[in-house]
């Protein structure tokens, strides 16, 4: 095989109460990576589309190629040569798992081009290195679902223990991106190092309730459990009119609403596609009242993860 093209999806991380341990994939948007082999050794970036020239072109400093270099080193392959093209279909700093989609598409494409020496699960630590390149933290709540699909839980980082749980068939995500940018490093910097015992107990209850609600297909329990008393109160100040947008979603049928990843994107979960679409419209309208344009995506939970679009 000399050429491969792979799509990896956007993701929602944290999912309200599950900071750095919950995440799920959606059907679109997502990034696309193309790799073409060449005779000369080395991984080089041929083109990047959709980034406005902001992403680094050096292979070791770019998320998409950095993960490839880590994988090749792990496999002991020194003479491999290829050129990489990245199609960025999500805004940078969007809270939609943009860097994770690039990392996952890149590492899956390279693994496929090498005839799949590693399983998808075994690729996760390499995808996480892409997050380290992008934000300084090798977290898995975006790359996990982007790579494995579905609703993913990270039980532990040391040792790494990641698994998926089932979700209700009529559960839809509305993902709304306001036209502003929040740097992931900045969004992590403002978080507190310690939390109170009271808030910890409350958060633990909501984490347990959300997992149970998803697995039992109890939509009311899902909604009651989508409460974040630790991260959302701090990060929400970075998103203009956050409380108004959230309340508009809840008033129009959303089970729950919170920040997607580091923001500024916000997500809501709803029962049924029509409810999810309505929620998206009122969230966009509320941002518009603040003079902020926004786009929305409505999707089931994407259980498949990356897709090979072409190969030869």
UniProtKB/TrEMBL annotation:
Where does this protein come from, organism-wise?
Answer: Dyadobacter frigoris
Annotated catalysed reactions: L-homoserine + ATP = O-phospho-L-homoserine + ADP + H(+)
Q: Which UniProt keywords apply?
A: Amino-acid biosynthesis, ATP-binding, Cytoplasm, Kinase, Nucleotide-binding, Threonine biosynthesis, Transferase
Query: Lineage, please?
Result: Bacteria, Pseudomonadati, Bacteroidota, Cytophagia, Cytophagales
What PROSITE patterns does the database record attribute to this sequence? Answer: GHMP_KINASES_ATP (PS00627)
Q: Which GO terms describe its cellular component?
A: cytoplasm
Query: Where is it chiefly localized?
Result: cytoplasm
Give, as one word, the top-level EC class.
transferase
From which domain of life does this come?
Bacteria
- Enzyme Commission no: 2.7.1.39
The GHMP kinase C-terminal domain, residue ranges: 217-288
Q: What does this protein do?
A: Catalyzes the ATP-dependent phosphorylation of L-homoserine to L-homoserine phosphate.
Listed binding positions for ATP are 91-101
All copies of domain GHMP kinase N-terminal, residue ranges: 62-150
A GO BP entry is: threonine biosynthetic process
This one is known as: Homoserine kinase
GO MF term set: ATP binding; homoserine kinase activity
Q: Which Pfam families match?
A: GHMP_kinases_C (PF08544), GHMP_kinases_N (PF00288)
Q: NCBIfam families, per this entry? A: PRK01212.1-4, thrB
Q: Where in the cell is it found?
A: Cytoplasm
